[in-house]
Design brief:
The protein is an all-alpha fold and about 350 residues long. About 60% of the residues lie in helices and about 0% in strands. Helix 1 packs across helix 2, helix 4 packs antiparallel against helix 5 and helix 12 runs antiparallel to helix 13.
Length: about 350
């Protein structure tokens, strides 16, 4: 319900006779509006009739579906209202259909299935929080409750997650999948799905254990070598989602990101990591308030407008345009404040 409250506040400030969705859209720069319209229409065209999206080579259908549909949710559409309601509803049906008896949202043949599972928890929990259809809401609650249980059992002895469950992956873990799980679990918890506190506490400790002296986060615990800017940016977003803003560790991570992640510094678009980095770092900057967000948003928007293709997609990165377009469209819509997981 928090997204509804945010919409109402925007409408009140915009004046009488203006709907919440119209008020949010009026705040956008016309260039950004056109950019987003092209991007979201591209995603609409790319959705398969079964309700899913996919990466290059038909890969990662669960993860791509959750990310693309989440970008449509950020526009203000739901399963029953808005320009992209049909696409959102089809995506929900597809992902619900991927829920296994084990609780995994996905399929074991995907050798990195925890990504899709985590992103699906995030997306479906946002839908669940606003779902008005009683039957669908009950179905989502069941799927998300099982998904939380799966993540708990998939956690490694050190408190992280790997590309697959601890059992399937011989207790291997690494930072990026850990962060995906934590954000998905926090989104579920925020939506009212019970999540044991100890799961989040263990994951936070894992992230802190991966920290280097300069505040960066390594790829995984015990690995030699330096920190990685993309994982560090994601780790800060993860800590923010978990309610940690002012600890010494978070302050050190923030200082590291200021030096290595801010647009134009350090991270490049090679292999798609630039988009991954700013998917998370943009969430951090938005939560920091208008002054920080204003400066960051101006920089990131300029770069995204410049690199969008005529089709509406962003083509950088090896995963494929559905991935980069979903991420970039989400970044450009954070200040819509429709989705609870991204709100201040």
């Amino acid at each position: 319900m928090r997204s509804i409250i945010a919409l109402l506040l925007v409408a009140i400030l915009a004046g009488p006779g203006v709907s919440p969705l119209e008020a949010a859209r009026k705040k956008k720069d016309p260039k950004v509006k056109r950019c987003l319209s092209k991007a979201l229409d591209y995603l609409k065209r790319e959705q398969r009739r079964q309700g899913y999206w996919e990466a290059r080579g038909g890969q990662y259908r669960v993860a791509m579906t959750a990310l693309a549909a989440n970008a449509l949710l950020a526009e203000g559409s739901t399963t029953t209202t808005g320009k992209y309601r049909d696409e959102v509803a089809q995506a929900v049906d597809f992902l619900v259909g991927q829920s296994r008896s084990s609780g995994l949202i996905g399929y074991k043949s995907d050798y990195r299935y925890t990504y899709g599972h985590g992103f699906s928890m995030l997306f479906l929990s946002q839908v669940y929080g606003e779902e008005e259809d009683k039957k669908r809401r009950n179905e989502l609650k069941k799927v998300l409750s099982k998904a939380v249980d799966f993540s708990a059992k998939a956690q490694t002895t050190r408190g992280g997650w790997g590309y697959v469950s601890a059992k399937d992956g011989n207790d291997f873990d690494e930072g990026s999948t850990c962060i995906t799980q934590v954000q998905g679990l926090r989104a579920c918890r925020n939506a009212g799905i019970p999540v044991p506190k100890e799961i989040i506490d263990k994951a936070q400790k894992y992230i802190r254990d991966c920290m280097t002296p300069d505040g960066g986060i390594r790829y995984r615990f015990g690995q030699s070598g330096g920190a990685r800017p993309p994982i560090t940016a994601a780790a800060v977003a993860c800590m923010f989602n978990s309610g940690e803003y002012e600890t010494d560790q978070v302050k050190k991570m923030m200082a590291y990101c200021e030096k290595n992640v801010w647009p134009g510094r350090g991270v490049t678009s090679r292999f798609g990591h630039w988009h991954y980095t700013h998917y998370y770092y943009s969430q951090v900057m938005y939560r920091m308030g208008e002054e920080k967000w204003g400066k960051y948003s101006a920089e990131i928007t300029k770069q995204l407008l410049r690199t969008q293709s005529s089709s509406g997609a962003w083509l950088e990165g090896y995963i494929g345009p559905v991935y980069t377009t979903s991420i970039n469209a989400t970044i450009l819509q954070l200040d819509n404040a429709f989705l609870p997981i991204y709100q201040r």
